[in-house]
Amino acid sequence: MGQQGELTLPASRLRARQSRSSRARARRRAGMKAYLLVSPALVLFIAFIAVPVVGIVVFSFLQWDLLTPPKFAGLANFRMLFHDGELPQALFNSLLFDIMTTTLHIVIGMGLAIAVTSVRSRVVRYWARTAFVVPFLMSAGAVAVMWSYILSGSTGPFNYYLTRLGMSPPDWLASGTWALPSLVGVDVWQTVGITFIIFLVGLQTIPSVLYEAAAIDGVGAFQRFHYITLPMLSPATMVASITAFIGAFEIFTWPYVITSGGPGNATLTIMVYIFRVAFRNLELGYGAAVAIVNLLVLVALVLFGFALGRRWVHYERV
Amino acid sequence: MSGSDTFPLLARVGLSRSLHRVRLRRWLVSAVLVVGGFTMLLPELWVLVNSFEPSRMQFTLPPVWFTSHLTLASYRQLFDLIPFLMQLANSVAVTVAVVVGSSVVSVLAAYAFARLEFWGRDVLFVALLSGLMLPIQIAAIPEFIEVKYLGLLNSQLSLIFPALIQVFGIFLLREHFKTIPDELEEAARLEGAGELQILRLVVVPLSWPAIYATAIITAQYIWNDFFWPNLYITSASRMVAPLGLVTLQNAYQSGPVGAIFAGLSILVIPVAVFFVFVQRQLMEGLGFAGISR
């Protein structure tokens, strides 16, 4: 078959072939230049991503307090991991925070996107897009400071209004039970806008034919959501979940600024713990060992997430 | 859900009663969105109003929403306590430097990965991509030591250099560069253009939306970041603004609330300006990034 093709090559195909081979030659010549173009990125990648990541492994075998020269510690740091009562707590808090915030992101983000798409008024759409995205543009440190005043138990406006509504709210940030969920609330407030936009763009890719067919068949709103919107949005859901999940596991700013990991260790997340071990207790080697645990747990969770995703993400396009 | 398409169809099928219901539901949804959006902005509004209140009034209950004794005392107090305008300038400068620098780095690399052939290209690219999934804070300890030995501790450069590599930027731009038709590049090559000229005259002019998108996402990321400034910067005059406010809050028992509210209010100004100018690109950029990731 290939030979037949050779015999009857039309002029245009022939020209295309020639240009392809000349392009290949040009590209070969570009080899050296290509390395030059890539080199800034490559140098930066090695210096600020690859070396630090390999560095965690190296550091985890050291005993180093920054004040005296580092000493080789063998497996001591790893042995310490098993006797560390705070590490499981930190991993558990990170995971709990992560599951709560990722779930809320998906539910609220998708709900908002569906709501905004169903509304016809341009003004309402514009308003919703603006109001829900603006917090995303504020800086996390500033957001943390702001919410520490709003959620304050005795003087904060949040509890004042809840009390006026007849509730008896807890002192959110001082409560061992409620401090972590409060931080989830702050996180969702600031970043739900991005999930919302991802779903908004995802919804625009669903062909309207599907909804028209459903309308003719007299399908109800819930069935429309269950059989069309949800499966068609599943790739966007996958993207939004994985992005939110990875980010939220390493949450630092809220527990560090708003609650300092407290009360007790109620909001001690893994990143706050690493920071505390390495830069406050000056145990850099042990901090690195904890970082390795963090990395392994995260990789395992993400792989688990992908495996789940493969089961129900629907990639078919109409 | 693409209302304008469903609408005439519904009418044609003759479901005028459910049409009323659809209209009612739309009204309800609109109302919820308007009120919900307003609620999202209430915290900022409360902070803004109370930044013009006399000191300590921020703790009065019921919360103040309309200030009757307008004063700039809190702003004066803020500027007395910390070099806030300097910190704001640091924030903007670091963000701009990273956006410009990383854009150049990303465009160059993305062009090579998308349109040139060289030995080890795919292996290199996969290695780069591994950095996409990794939250680099995990490697903070070695990176801290590295920055220390480079002599960059407590310098804004410590916030700029490590951020110049934005892996997702390279990834997004590469995806875009691959869609540019070969013919344009061929034509330029026949005219004797070199790689840099092709990049400057053909590829970049056709890619501004993608470049804006990556630039905006990078800007948000840098502006939002608290982890690295908190780790590297210790002197007030070199801090970025949010770190300045956090430090101010920690320096005093319960913090000089008025001054902090004043700082928070000022900090929203660049965000608002940014938002007004780039809203459309921002939406496209965020959506684009979401989909391609």
Write the layout of secondary structure elements.
The complex is a heterodimer of chains A (318) and B (293).
Chain A: H1 2-7, H2 11-29, H3 31-59, E1 62-63, E2 71-72, H4 76-81, H5 86-118, H6 122-137, H7 140-150, H8 157-164, H9 179-204, H10 208-216, H11 221-249, H12 253-259, H13 270-280, H14 284-312
Antiparallel strand pairs in A: 1-2
Chain B: H1 3-13, H2 16-51, H3 73-81, H4 84-115, H5 121-133, H6 140-149, H7 157-160, H8 167-177, H9 182-190, H10 195-203, H11 208-224, H12 227-232, H13 241-251, H14 257-292
> Unreliable runs of chain A, pLDDT <50, ≥5 residues?
1-14
Major beta-sheet overview of chain B: none
What overall geometry of chain B do the principal axes of the alpha carbons give?
A: globular
Task: Provide the number of structural domains of chain B.
Answer: 2
Query: Runs of chain B with pLDDT <50, length 5+?
Result: none
Regarding quaternary structure, what we see is heterodimer
Helix content of chain A: over 70%
Structural class of chain A, by secondary structure, is mainly alpha
Q: Briefly, what CATH class of the largest domain in chain B?
A: Mainly Alpha
Describe this structure in words.
The complex is a heterodimer of chains A (318) and B (293). By secondary structure, chain A is an all-alpha fold. Chain A folds into 2 domains: 2-59, no CATH class; 79-312, MetI-like fold, CATH 1.10.3720. Chain A is 75% helix and 1% strand. Chain A contains 14 helices and 2 strands. In chain A, β1 (62-63) and β2 (71-72) form a beta hairpin. The radius of gyration of chain A is 27 Å and the shape is globular. Chain A starts with a helix and ends in a 6-residue tail after the last helix. In chain A, 39% of the residues are buried. Chain B is an all-alpha fold. Chain B has 2 domains: 3-51; 76-292, Orthogonal Bundle (MetI-like fold). Chain B is built from 14 helices and no strands. Chain B has helices at 3-13, 16-51, 73-81, 84-115, 121-133, 140-149, 157-160, 167-177, 182-190, 195-203, 208-224, 227-232, 241-251, 257-292. In chain B, α3 (73-81) packs across α14, α8 packs antiparallel against α11 (208-224) and α9 (182-190) packs across α10 (195-203).
